[in-house]
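Supplementary Methods S3. Input chains for the assembly prediction are listed below.
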Amino acid sequence: MNARSDIPAFEPVNLAQVPMPRPALGDGRLALQLRVEQVTRLFGGLRALDGVSLDLRPGEVHGLIGPNGSGKTTLLNLLSGYYPPSSGAIRLGDEDLSAQPVQRRAQVGLARTFQKPRLLPMLTVLENAVLGAWPHAHAGFLATSLALPSVAREDKILLDRAAELLHGVGLGHVLHRRANLLDHAEQRFLEIARGLALRPRFILLDEPAGGLTEIEIGHLSDVVQAIRGAGIGVLLVEHHTDFVFRICDRVTTLNLGKMIKSGTPDEVRCDPEVIRVYLGA
Amino acid sequence: MTGAAHSKKIGLVLGALLVVTLPFWAGDQYQLHLAALIAVYWILVAGLNLVVGFTGQLSVGHVGLLSISAYTFAILGGTLGWNPYLAMVAAGGLGGLCGLLLGLPSLRLPGFYFAMATMAFAMIVNELVLANPQLTGGGIGLPGPAFPAPFDTPAGLYYLVAALAAGVTWLTWNIARRMWGRAFISIRDNPVAAQAVGVPVLRAKLSAFVFSGVTAGFAGSAFASLQSYITPDTFVFELSLFFFVCIIIGGRGSLIGPFLGVVVLTALPEMAAPLAKLGNLFYGVLLLVVVLVVPEGIGRMLELIGERIRPRVARHEAVKPDLARLTRVLAEQA
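Predicted structure tokens for the full assembly:
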């Protein structure tokens, strides 16, 4: 029954090489930046992104705004590795992630949520959240099938932490509810909890405020602040501009695949070009 | 929750009691044989369940793996006179190896293309068996060796396969309720989410598939011994569909469901002896009823009944973050 050894070796996350816990605040050594360097992405003849540069810093909320079709989602998909840039590079510290597969993002601590929440409908809220901790689950298939004591111990640690995160984001009352029975706001917060279960350095939030009420956006805002406070970098793609300008440290505006303005919320809000193409007078 | 766990435990104890005492209350030798056959099928289906029910990969080729390992067992244990237990372990290993060789190219294929690849595999195996009569006996077949005492009687063999089936059930249950089981379900229900959390999709599919090859290997050995004679006609493609249908009827992502599927689909046509000729009609009607009435399968039906008996209070509460708790858990070091 030696199923495991027949299979091509999988590189477990080496914690020595990849310092998963975020840097302690003020500790500059591990404070890697996620850099987008002169990235262009072509789809046939369409320049979905055209020479865009951006950097995400730990413990900072970076907003990404722009009209529909401006390239926000393309940039997010490049960062998550669903396709590579046509030219330019995406780096985490010294590592070039441009051509790395999606799974590698999780290993280096890059989490994301989706515009339309992607949950597992038949699993409970807790099981959905703990799946985010997959890179920290080291138990092999064979060890798991034989129920070695270390497997149960590890599973309990991961489940306990996922449960704490769920209580933290406000889903403590539905831990054992099936995900297909959640309302929209609960699904959004569950996706954030799943992302945090990864112990990310950076989390990419794709329109997290979409479909939320004002009160829920307030809660979301609190949660994002707490994430920032823990030294995690946040990229916030969002149409809800009030929310973006209220919460972000820096904001980048895209239009037709090009960056038109990047700076503090006040600088961006007052930029005539941003007002012309996006905010309106 | 604890109430449900309690009734599960009682069900498990009662089930075990039934399995252990079965030879004493079974009506005749044939019923005992049928019970042993159910256990043998379950050994295979339990492994296949991880592939089909959990990972969502539509394999309809497992009769090929069953055939390979049954012949391996018959050749090693019969023709070459190996110790039957050793022959069984070898057949299990070969089943796993075949699973790897079949899965490595085919598991990259999406949905129906994978199903077609496994179907082609099952057909090729049967042709190869016919084409090598000096090894397999061709159309005449081979005798399946018996296990030594105390497993040489019908009751003894029954206990042996029941124990194997229990062991395989335990292994799959361990997988299903931990991270691997969740990862399998994520591949089935949302591959994009699976990738995003870092699940190595191909490697996970292969793990499940190789495991199912190993269980098919053990099932094939037990099958050859139980049938006492195997021919290519034993390993018809319908048998593969039968395994697949057991899982679909039983319900995806459940262990008890597919098990009940195997029991019902094996026993029902035989129990209704006067109607034995209508066996296929039973499959057809049952499949139709399940798909129309409980498309999520027997397993889900049991859950729904459980929830009816013990309704859960579903009160709605708004999402209310506990920021102190969130900050604390985020600050904890690995």
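The beta strands of chain A are 34-43, 46-56, 61-65, 87-92, 95-96, 110-112, 202-206, 233-237, 250-255, 258-263. The two ends of chain A are 69 Å apart (CA to CA).
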